[in-house]
Design brief:
- By secondary structure, the protein is an alpha/beta fold.
- It has 2 domains: 251 residues, Zn peptidases (Aminopeptidase); 66 residues, RNA polymerase II/Efflux pump adaptor protein, barrel-sandwich hybrid domain (OB fold (Dihydrolipoamide Acetyltransferase, E2P)).
- Helix content is 28%, strand content 24%.
- The chain contains 9 helices and 14 strands.
- The protein has an 11-stranded mixed β-sheet with strand order 1-3-2-4-7-5-6-8-14-13-10, sandwiched between helices.
- α2 crosses α9.
- The longest helix is centred in the N-terminal third of the chain and has 15 residues.
- It is globular.
- The chain starts with a helix and ends in a 7-residue tail after the last strand.
- The mean pLDDT is 92.
């Protein structure tokens, strides 16, 4: 499909919405926020069929599911349309791109719900599913939050044993570093240097008084990923008691990892010293990448390489560095 054909087709946002006849929580499930991450789309359509055919019912509260959150990116078979929808997510008085127009519909939809389950997949092969959560309760300036107990319970039950925290704090450190570098007046550069560019669906949801969990269900092409996404939806329904679904016990032991810092790719010739997968272990001083001038980028301490992106655009995130967290999900 050409870009012109894709743009001609992507003129609305489709949802499946089911209202229980008794009061209860309002859950929204998103998929294909990145257009080439389709496992959640398949899982949502499966749940919608079960609800439509009567194999499943919503007894209380509200369930809203968006199978394709970024229809342009999905039609093009790529991560973003004009840009990454999962950055700089906020209503735009003067929309400048397709994702701004989606945000103007998506943000009010998120506002109308209590909890968000955001279903994604990842590029690197061989990794296991994981979930991302927000910060503990706090009244700080960066990401104040007061619903971590509910969010932690959701993360504990949706499936993955590996949990990642610390996104906004690490991203903020990266933005502070970027602002010290010279740059252009192009919009993408300005966005990269805006702390709000780190705000995606879950960060927006928390800022609006809700709570949210992202589930990375597996590699993009992993045939098991749609089943991971389906189980996450069903366990969210069970935990929130929206549907008569058995609640499975949480994973006995979670591995919680905290993102500590982010390193940007600065030049098209910056390269990794090897093909990294998320959560690969590194030792202090171990080379991770090499700058175009030959300078080595090394691990600052023992830890993990997370979200490595060998194709990152200059000025954007190349990889994150993470270390074990002492945080527990359930007391």
């Amino acid at each position: 499909m050409t870009e012109a054909e894709a743009r001609a087709q992507t003129y609305h946002l489709r949802t499946h919405q089911f209202f229980g006849l008794r009061p209860g929580p309002r859950l929204i499930v998103l998929a294909a926020v990145h257009g080439n991450e389709v496992c959640g789309m398949h899982a949502i359509e499966r749940v919608a069929r079960e609800l439509t055919e009567g194999a499943l019912r919503i007894e209380r509260g509200v369930l809203t599911m968006v199978p394709v959150t970024n229809p342009l990116a999905n039609a093009l078979g790529q991560r973003g349309g004009d840009r990454n929808l999962n950055r700089n997510l906020r209503p735009a008085a003067a929309p400048q791109d397709f994702e701004d127009r989606i945000a103007n519909v998506l943000c009010p939809l998120l506002d109308a719900h209590d909890a968000l389950l955001d279903l994604h997949s990842f590029l690197a092969a061989g990794g296991e599913p994981f979930a991302l959560v927000g910060p503990p309760d706090n009244d700080g300036d960066l990401e104040p939050f007061a619903r971590s107990a509910e969010e932690s319970a959701l993360a504990a039950h949706v499936g993955p044993a590996r949990i990642v925290e610390g996104w906004m704090a690490a991203y903020d450190r990266g933005v502070r570093r970027r602002r010290q570098r010279p740059g252009s007046a192009e919009r993408q550069h300005l966005l990269n240097n805006d702390p709000n560019y780190g705000v995606g669906t879950t960060e927006y949801m928390r800022a609006r008084g809700g709570y949210a969990v992202t589930v990375e269900c597996g590699q993009h092409e992993d045939p098991a990923a749609p089943e991971v996404a389906y189980r996450a939806i069903m366990q969210a329904l069970a935990l929130l008691r929206l549907a008569p679904v058995p609640l499975a016990p949480p994973v006995p032991r979670h591995e919680v990892i905290r993102l500590v810092d982010v390193t940007d790719r600065l030049h098209p010739d910056d390269t990794f010293v090897r093909a990294w997968s998320s959560f690969d272990a590194v030792r202090a001083g171990e080379p991770i990448g090499r700058r175009h001038d030959g300078t080595l980028v090394t691990a600052p301490a023992d830890g993990r390489v997370v979200f490595p992106n060998a194709r990152a655009e200059p000025g954007q995130e190349w990889f994150y560095f993470a270390q074990p967290s002492a945080r527990t999900l359930l007391d």
